[in-house]
């Protein structure tokens, strides 16, 4: 199945058998890190671009293979991206760390395959123009680091993902994807519109969130780790596109359970909201909708070609987009994939709009609570 890992695995087992003249359980060779969750906090977003001059941006990414909960009671063998800052490696998350650069920037990606891993990996960023989107020069075995440098040529939201072993489907199905935002020179619009009050003109800042959708095909057993009870990729289910779960941000409950991040997407009445959305797939497109909201703008590509006043937006697997809207009416709003049986399988989350002033009866009356769904 995986040429690289079988070779690596076989090499190690041979050394153990011939060197020690004893059968050493291979499970002792590879330790897998047990983490509680890979769920991504939707507010973990790099600061917006405020400059106009291109610069060099360096991003250190570390690939980890970990055991974490995918759905209640289901431990899954995830592969994912973490960011290293000031020599500290952050958590491995799904989606991976959001990367934010500007059109014209020179971007340096230092990609490390953690030495505890068993798989070869690489990175393909759809913001890159060149062979493999970077995958052609970033193939790394566990313990290796390689560097990719590219120029961010086109503004837009793009997915990045692993394409290791020439089998991106497998690596994406294990959770290896994230979003890179290439902002226009000067940055994305900081305010949707200007308002005036008695002190003069004020800008309404966007409250920004980061969501990654993916679907999961699982079977009992963890390759290379026979001592661990858990689940890994079921390739037959993946081939026939019959997923067990869908997630927003790496766990079926990530954005709908207050004990994870279910209360994290919170804004005030009148706030502007911007959502960076990536769909890893690997197979299935998202039909993203927020029940009770209309997207003022939705731009899968250049912000100037935004689609306006859209309600359900299709984000293909292997793609990303930006959504903007004004939170005019207080309440609890359900985020869904509007292929609605997927909600039952985990594709849901909440946006909370706090009442910050008088209820806007001219927009919605009477005053309401809950989602009605
Ligand atoms: Cu990979």
UniProtKB/TrEMBL annotation:
All copies of domain Plastocyanin-like, residue ranges: 94-185
InterPro entries, sorted: Cu-oxidase-like_N, Cu-oxidase_fam, Cupredoxin, NO2-reductase_Cu
Cofactor(s) annotated in UniProt: Cu(+); Cu(2+)
EC number, UniProt record: 1.7.2.1
Molecular function terms from GO: copper ion binding; nitrite reductase (NO-forming) activity
Cross-referenced CDD domains: CuRO_1_CuNIR (cd11020)
The entry's keywords: Copper, Metal-binding, Oxidoreductase, Repeat
Enzyme class: oxidoreductase
UniProt xrefs under Gene3D superfamilies: Cupredoxins - blue copper proteins (2.60.40.420)
Catalytic reaction(s) noted: nitric oxide + Fe(III)-[cytochrome c] + H2O = Fe(II)-[cytochrome c] + nitrite + 2 H(+)
Alphabetical list of Pfam families matching this protein: Cu-oxidase_3
UniProt: Cu cation binding residues: 121, 126, 161-162, 171, 176, 338
Keyword Chloroplast carried by entry: no
Superkingdom: Bacteria
Family listed: Belongs to the multicopper oxidase family.
Matching PANTHER family: FI03373P-RELATED (PTHR11709:SF394), MULTI-COPPER OXIDASE (PTHR11709)
Subunit structure: Homotrimer.
Protein name per its UniProtKB record: Copper-containing nitrite reductase
Source organism per UniProt: Candidatus Brocadia carolinensis
Taxonomic lineage from the root: Bacteria, Pseudomonadati, Planctomycetota, Candidatus Brocadiia, Candidatus Brocadiales
